[in-house]
Amino acid sequence: MIRVASAVVTLLVVLGSTALPPAASDSPGSRDLPRAEAAFRVTRAMSMNDPTHNRGQVARQLRTFIRHTPRGATISIMSFYMASSITWPALKDAYQRGVDIRAIFYGGPTGKPLAGVSSGGVKLTELIRQGRARGRRGSWVVWTKNSARGRDGNTTMHAKVWQFSRVGRTRKVTMIGSYNNSDAADARAYSAMVTVALPRLYDKVQNVFQQSARDRKPPGNPQRRAAGAGWDAYFMPSLPITRANDPVLERLRSIPARPGTRMTISMYSWQGFRGAWLARKLARMVQAGARLTVVVGPDVDASVVRTLREAGARLEDGCWRTGHRSRPYAYTHDKEMTATWVDGAGTTQYAAWLGSDDWGNGSGGSQSDQVTIGLYSRWAHDRLLKLLAPQIAHEPDNLAHCDPLPSRVRAVLRS
User: Domain 42-205 belongs to what architecture?
Assistant: First the structure.
């Protein structure tokens, strides 16, 4: 149960400054870039960490972008936690060559660094502290007390967003998805990120980023929406979440429930009254002729499984034994969906959604900080469907329960 308070206690760790950190600035002109950075461009991309065949893929992509971020540019990070031996050295080098780094991490109930799960965040905090002691400005770290833009209590800063004011010759690059940047996640969890260079999206995400840095709930419902040509995005928390304002239910209502509609979902957690109304809506769509495949993650409620199974959806196991003692399970950590349908004009439509929003009304869902992007193109649909294929093909499909998080990690996250 979330405790409603008239004031949210804010602990803003900005390493010596209590003022709100300034917004990210643009980087120097291309004439100031080293040759390798000047030649590098970012194109749309989508990658999946596959713990069984392609571990660390997203972390390596992040490392490439960080290495091509020039002096004077800004990297903005919103991440539940960060503990990657691939990403951290690149971040350290970037800071030392003059890149500004601004990060927001989940700091637990007390809003303090969580060394047990976010070692990279702790090291980044210390690196920036040392830089500020020498007069370096422009970088900061915030450890949120529970959610950043929501209420105090059993909530989290759960978003997974990386932004680069410049990468090589490309400005305003945004990565959004379900990937927690850590070696442990690389070893166990399927999770995807999409990369786009959309200036309007970059600016809208930055608005939410700056609001999140204040670590307090804004007036009214903190849910936000944004849209542009071929994309839209939503930002949680939603206080309250209702059938009228649920962006996922709105998405499903826009897709025709009839033969020819095909949907694929991979979902880590699907719970609560919100999860129930989404499951019932999808069940009605299947009963009307739509085809649905769901990769059932380790925290999907049995009632959701029952609703979808009885409607005739295809259910795939999202948790598998690996045979490794230290990491006995691989599992989907995705919160992803694809859909294709024929609209009223006879045109085939394609869409894909990636983000951090688990389909529930609890701490991993609508009451916590989340960012999800929708992309409306055949490229996005086909690419995500290809990345999800190994999960769909995994056997056996007995939907057996697994507890993927080590007890040490669970204890820190719940403390």
Answer: 2-Layer Sandwich (3.30)
